[in-house]
Amino acid sequence: MRLRPRPRPGAVTVGAVRGAALLLGLACFGSTLWHGLDEPGNALAFGTLVALGELARWGAPPGTGTPPAAEEPRGSEPAPLAAAGALAYALLGTSAGAPTTHGVPQTVAVVVAAGLAGIVPHVARGRGPGLDHLARRVLTVGFAALCFQPLYNAGVVTEHLGQGPAYALFLVLLLLLTALCDAVLAALLLRARTGFPYGPLLRDELRAFLGIGSAVCATGTVMALGVAAAGLWALPVLAVPLLLTQVSFRRYAAVRTVNRQTIASLARATEIAGCTPPGHARRVAALSAAVGRELGLSGAELAVLEHAALMHDIGQLSLVDPVAGGATALLPAEEQRRIALLGGEVVRRTGVPEAVAVVVERQADPYREQPLPARIVRAVNAYDDLAATGTGEGAAAALGALERLRLGTARDYHPDVVECLARVLARGGAAGVTSAVPG
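RESULT FIELD:
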């Protein structure tokens, strides 16, 4: 009898979230088709807004992926106008003074149908959003509608809060609760896919909410209140500020992309000059980011760490005689420190943040004197150097490199960083890095 392999816990979590979103969407579609569409004008207006928001979403073209730590915050909303319109429809109580009756099922059905219509052109060009994003949108909109629509339709909200400031504050609190729900889901899905600790991922999601997420919630609230007072004509007027914000964020993201590409090009200079083996900087950066995630670094700290890891060997360009094989981990401590200081000077001339230069120039110090990012870069760089120059192949070379790092924890490598590196490698390494260490 042949046994089927047991699915990974992460795959089970992702499947459960997607399955819940699929069941909710199908149930809401079925209910809406059975009972008919209430207030078609409202449904058409908000559906059009959501579809246009999805059409105006931003995203990287296929094949231009960036390193995990250097991405925009994972909590940032790529389609803020669609998100704000969906939340406004979920929290819509009255339209031009007339009470609405669309309820939870119709809310979810309209948002899902409009969202699917808006992403079709992106899917046709190979730039469509992932299934996880769609699942989060369905579940968060359903959550917001479930918290508001039954209470409003039963008259509880207007009876106790009226239509004044207390009602507006109630909408804001509901949207904040919905944002928290979305952050929990996003961190849970990312934890399932990557295996990174859940706490730091949730913290990054909540921090990202302070950017475009807060604008989405504020616009959703204002849209719901504006339509309640002035009718559907308020929608295009209130959508303009968020659309302008989206354009500004897109330009900011483009600038960050150019900066990352510049840093990656500078990192390749050592490979082109023959100072380091091909792919060394990329491997060290990917593994450093994974170790930093494991140790709980925030998004900004991870960006500094990854940029420093990409440029950690740039000091070798100042050497008259290149290091054999580019393996600086095998050099005497004083020579390592000299190369690190040279690298720090070069990095400062490139215009990157000062924190990156500090990590590069302190990577060769005794670990008790180093900041955490420098400890990570030193250990990961040594692992890659030792695995490439050690005896044996594959798993034997990788295990031998880890053993040498463990032997050096008295002075050179922080024990926690080394053990964290071992755990990352046991899980299969980082994106773009093939680990030879068996799990």
